[in-house]
Amino acid sequence: MNNSAFTIFGGTGDLTFRKLLPALYNMNTTKGPAADRQIIIIGRRDYTTEKYCSIAQDWVKKFSRLPYTDKDFKNFSQRITYYKMDFTNLSSYDQLDEYYKRHDLSQHIFYFAVAPRFFSTIAEGLTNVSHACHGKVILEKPFGADLDSAKLLNIQLEKFFSAENIFRIDHYLGKEMIRNIQTLRFSNPIFSNLWNSRYIESVQISAPEDMGIESRGGYYDASGALRDMVQNHLFQILSIVAMEWPEQLSSTAMHDAQIRILRALRPVKNIRETLVLGQYKGYHQERLVKPNSTTETYAALRLFIDNERWWGTPFYIRTGKKLNRREIKLAIVFRPSFLEKAPQNILIIKIQPSEGVYLQFNIKKPGDTDEIIQAKMDFSQSEYVKRLNTPEAYERLIKACINNNKLWFSQWDQIELSWNFIDKLHELYKWEHLPVFKYEPFTSGPEQADELLNQFGHSWID
Ligand code: BG6
């Protein structure tokens, strides 16, 4: 072990158990770059390290992408220390500093796996820890709850950490097929030459989830689908799908290309032709949800990008909780052929759970006929590339942070632009009293979301 530390604030939370520990376990097992760091788990509960590891063991067993073995876990758990501390108590950071000194730990990565309202308190507390300000900090989304709170948070964090040491996670950027979009687009002339509004009728980003809000009522009820999923994950996908080829493959060039898309999002005028909101029946019975809450658990949007490439092509986005499936899919619907009876070509990038590419095109039906039928070419990468070789999103992102690679992290100006858009959308729909339609759990959501497209002669690709 060396003297570098990976400290997790919020060490007994869901994110740590479900995502971070399994990711770190895998990195340990594959001897990845975090393999010799000490892992300091900060939590309020009265655990010993031994007790914590025995709890962590069950989560790692369940969520690790690599097969669990006692030997690997033992090896991994030797690097874990549970450190009991109330991170909202600023006076407790002196002792944390003592702890680091005693163990000669200095090269820090701090992971804030806590609600964003604690970010600035922890950053302030860390001013009492020697060397902490030269360390890196990884922040979970959401970054703020709206534009104003995000700005404030940014100012507070940049007071303490330098901008290049702040890593804002959007774990969608670690997903294999999201990183594949650029390759698929730009390395295939058959796609790149057609990637514009002249040939593409609509672009659809779908991210339905079958889970409800589970134990996150307090957070979710104040957030809703637009802030929880659209402002960050789905806008990231949108800007990657729509961006121009970045001048170089550097994080700055890539972010600039994405930012140009966010800037070109057409301001919404007609909210009823832009947004459909829904809420699943039974949402009010969820823990910590207000009895009359109108928070949306479903959102469908129709957006436009005002630039030369995308003029006139709608970008449809939909996401929601307690729907009939969990998947993330990107559908590119090409304009119809001049042959009237030929169905439209469709390209689907399957992001999750299955990973791959699906292409629908037309051929002649075999036999003595001129009938046109659809051929469906379905490439499933997840079936032939063993998942063992595909690092989970968190593994990749932690590794990228250690290697100082900012390519797949959200940048502050992206966050600022997307909050700005979502805040305005919020204001407009509140002002216009847009209804929030109820939908039955485990269906495809409110039927008004179909109407949103049907009225323009389009429909969702399922
Ligand atoms: C999180 C959202 O950022 O992403 C959750 O807060 C959502 O509400 C989750 O369930 C979805 O992530 P994934 O990787 O399961 O698609």
Can you describe this structure?
The structure is a single chain. With 462 residues, the protein is α/β, with parallel strands linked by helices. It has helices at 14-29, 49-63, 70-77, 93-102, 119-125, 147-160, 176-186, 189-192, 217-221, 224-242, 251-264, 381-384, 393-402, 412-431, 448-454; strands at 4-9, 38-43, 80-84, 107-112, 136-139, 166-168, 200-208, 275-280, 298-303, 315-320, 328-334, 346-352, 356-364, 372-380, 436-439. It has two domains: 4-140, NAD(P)-binding Rossmann-like Domain (Rossmann fold), CATH 3.40.50.720; 172-392 and 411-454, Dihydrodipicolinate Reductase, domain 2 (2-Layer Sandwich). Helices cover 35% and strands 20% of the residues. The chain has a nine-stranded mixed β-sheet with strand order 14-13-12-11-7-10-9-8-15, with helices on both faces. A six-stranded parallel β-sheet has the order 3-2-1-4-5-6. α6 (147-160) packs antiparallel against α14 (412-431). The longest helix has 20 residues, at 412-431. The chain is globular. The chain starts with a strand and ends in an 8-residue tail after the last helix. The model has no long low-confidence stretch (mean pLDDT 93). The protein binds 6-O-phosphono-beta-D-glucopyranose. Residues 141, 209, 228, 352 line the site of 6-O-phosphono-beta-D-glucopyranose (BG6). 6-O-phosphono-beta-D-glucopyranose is lined by residues 141, 209, 228, 352.
